[in-house]
Amino acid sequence: MIKTILPKSTIGIIGGGQLGRMLAMSAKEMGYKIAILDPGEDCCARKFADVFIHSAFNDFKNVEELCKLSDVITFEFENIDVEVLKILEKKYNFVQSAKSLEISQNRLSEKEFARSLDIPTVKYYKYNDENIVIDSTYLMKTLRFGYDGKGQKKINSIEEIEEDTILEKLLDLDKEISVVAVKDRENIEIVAVVENEHRENILFRSNIPANITKEQNNKAIEYTKRILDNFDYYGVLTVEFFISDGEVIFNEIAPRVHNSGHITMQSANKSQFRAHIEAICGLKVGEIYNKETTLYNILGQNEEYFINLITKRQGFLHLYEKEARHNRKIGHINFEGTVYLEDDFE
Ligand code: ADP
Ligand code: MG
């Protein structure tokens, strides 16, 4: 049974990037205290932390120190040491199980998991599968640690295969969507179904509502609920899907708040951050509904463009106080309604 943790208590967050920052801001608004552990001394969530532990993520002693200080512990990314978590979750209040994290941090195990639940995936092979047939272009992805398309490469022959990878058939995508969902003490609620457009494998723009059919929408929601039903987990979890040839195809699980879900800061009656904090604290999240909204990510090289834009038209600017490097996400802007910046963009 999940514990009820009330404001004034401390929420521990492993990771102090922009997701940790926005989680902390949301929790602070409710009156919680925040403890953050991160290896970066200048990490962007630090200014919202009451306690900051400067440490590597796999340092058992320091992670335990964070647990001791915290009434509930969460994380902003999936690549934390599962072995450390398996030991600590027996003693401290982790509500997102190490098992669910273990499945989501490996591209092969998450696809096997999806298939075991009868959720369609792209055709794939493990790099050392004896039956590999490369008869078209495949996307080779590292089994772990990829993000924003990092660790991915197109291949057309068996000779190009590298170790510790998964080979996925390159699909012709009609669209990409994500379902941001949350499991609270009694229900699974849908925070948002979001349509996502990537450029160079990095999320460029997100829209609500997603321009998909009712059947596709219902299928994606049903698959996401199936995953959450089979996870020992409370909090926000996001599933990315491809729409290809009209079919809804599982891509990956993020056991956390998600970049596309940043749109809910303006689109929803309750943002993904607030929903996550409530769910891990054992509160009821309740029904979430959204209005038509557009999100643009701000990458380092586009900072000037977006800052200039926001002085001229209404929008909701969220800057993460990160150094503006090429292709690095340093903020986002949400606009009411459907907004296309194509004509004046770059
Ligand atoms: P990550 O988001 O962790 O970098 P993804 O597997 O989501 O990795 O891949 C990033 C993007 O690359 C996807 O959002 C999609 O645009 C494209 N992509 C990934 N896998 C495929 C595939 N099998 N076929 C077509 N496009 C793909
Ligand atoms: Mg992805």
Automatic annotation (TrEMBL):
<feature type="binding site">
    <location>
        <position position="141"/>
    </location>
    <ligand>
        <name>ATP</name>
    </ligand>
</feature>
<feature type="binding site">
    <location>
        <position position="176"/>
    </location>
    <ligand>
        <name>ATP</name>
    </ligand>
</feature>
<dbReference type="InterPro" id="IPR016185">
    <property type="entry name" value="PreATP-grasp_dom_sf"/>
</dbReference>
<dbReference type="InterPro" id="IPR005875">
    <property type="entry name" value="PurK"/>
</dbReference>
<dbReference type="GO" id="GO:0046872">
    <property type="term" value="F:metal ion binding"/>
</dbReference>
<dbReference type="InterPro" id="IPR054350">
    <property type="entry name" value="PurT/PurK_preATP-grasp"/>
</dbReference>
<dbReference type="GO" id="GO:0004638">
    <property type="term" value="F:phosphoribosylaminoimidazole carboxylase activity"/>
</dbReference>
<feature type="binding site">
    <location>
        <begin position="146"/>
        <end position="152"/>
    </location>
    <ligand>
        <name>ATP</name>
    </ligand>
</feature>
<dbReference type="InterPro" id="IPR040686">
    <property type="entry name" value="PurK_C"/>
</dbReference>
<feature type="domain" description="ATP-grasp">
    <location>
        <begin position="86"/>
        <end position="281"/>
    </location>
</feature>
<keyword id="KW-0658">Purine biosynthesis</keyword>
<dbReference type="InterPro" id="IPR011054">
    <property type="entry name" value="Rudment_hybrid_motif"/>
</dbReference>
<comment type="pathway">
    <text>Purine metabolism; IMP biosynthesis via de novo pathway; 5-amino-1-(5-phospho-D-ribosyl)imidazole-4-carboxylate from 5-amino-1-(5-phospho-D-ribosyl)imidazole (N5-CAIR route): step 1/2.</text>
</comment>
<dbReference type="GO" id="GO:0034028">
    <property type="term" value="F:5-(carboxyamino)imidazole ribonucleotide synthase activity"/>
</dbReference>
<comment type="subunit">
    <text>Homodimer.</text>
</comment>
<feature type="binding site">
    <location>
        <begin position="251"/>
        <end position="252"/>
    </location>
    <ligand>
        <name>ATP</name>
    </ligand>
</feature>
<dbReference type="Pfam" id="PF02222">
    <property type="entry name" value="ATP-grasp"/>
</dbReference>
<comment type="similarity">
    <text>Belongs to the PurK/PurT family.</text>
</comment>
<feature type="binding site">
    <location>
        <begin position="168"/>
        <end position="171"/>
    </location>
    <ligand>
        <name>ATP</name>
    </ligand>
</feature>
<dbReference type="Pfam" id="PF17769">
    <property type="entry name" value="PurK_C"/>
</dbReference>
<keyword id="KW-0067">ATP-binding</keyword>
<dbReference type="GO" id="GO:0006189">
    <property type="term" value="P:'de novo' IMP biosynthetic process"/>
</dbReference>
<dbReference type="GO" id="GO:0005829">
    <property type="term" value="C:cytosol"/>
</dbReference>
<feature type="binding site">
    <location>
        <position position="198"/>
    </location>
    <ligand>
        <name>ATP</name>
    </ligand>
</feature>
<protein>
    <recommendedName>
        <fullName>N5-carboxyaminoimidazole ribonucleotide synthase</fullName>
        <ecNumber>6.3.4.18</ecNumber>
    </recommendedName>
</protein>
<dbReference type="GO" id="GO:0005524">
    <property type="term" value="F:ATP binding"/>
</dbReference>
<dbReference type="InterPro" id="IPR013815">
    <property type="entry name" value="ATP_grasp_subdomain_1"/>
</dbReference>
<dbReference type="InterPro" id="IPR011761">
    <property type="entry name" value="ATP-grasp"/>
</dbReference>
<dbReference type="InterPro" id="IPR003135">
    <property type="entry name" value="ATP-grasp_carboxylate-amine"/>
</dbReference>
<feature type="binding site">
    <location>
        <position position="107"/>
    </location>
    <ligand>
        <name>ATP</name>
    </ligand>
</feature>
<dbReference type="Pfam" id="PF22660">
    <property type="entry name" value="RS_preATP-grasp-like"/>
</dbReference>
<comment type="function">
    <text>Catalyzes the ATP-dependent conversion of 5-aminoimidazole ribonucleotide (AIR) and HCO(3)(-) to N5-carboxyaminoimidazole ribonucleotide (N5-CAIR).</text>
</comment>
<keyword id="KW-0436">Ligase</keyword>
<keyword id="KW-0547">Nucleotide-binding</keyword>
